[in-house]
Design goal:
about 40% helix, Alpha-Beta Plaits, alpha+beta, about 100 residues
Length: about 100
């Protein structure tokens, strides 16, 4: 069953964030992932959630998404994202 990482982020340091944005796609691909939504400004249709940018990444399985998040080689990049943004990250399974 496919799984999705949903990232809600506000970029505070664009120049620092650009390094992350340039390098992370290779790690996503190594774990079978692909972008579904890439840094789009969402239109809030209901509720008080006000994300500035949204990213959705599809993985073949929950295990692949977790392996991506645990990849030791990507940890420096995750730290860079965390240092240059305020972000919230969800992992959800898709429907069969």
């Amino acid at each position: 069953m496919k799984a999705y990482l949903v990232l809600d982020l506000t970029v505070h340091d664009l120049s620092g964030f650009l390094e992350y944005a340039q390098k992370i796609p290779a790690f996503i691909a190594q774990h079978g992932g692909r972008y579904i939504v890439k840094g789009e400004v969402p239109a809030v249709m209901e509720g008080d959630w006000t994300p500035e940018r949204v990213v959705i990444i599809e993985f073949p399985s929950n295990g692949d998404a977790r392996a991506f998040l645990a990849d030791p080689s990507a940890q420096t990049l995750f730290g860079l994202r965390q240092a240059t943004t305020t972000s919230k990250l969800l992992l959800v399974d898709g429907c069969e």
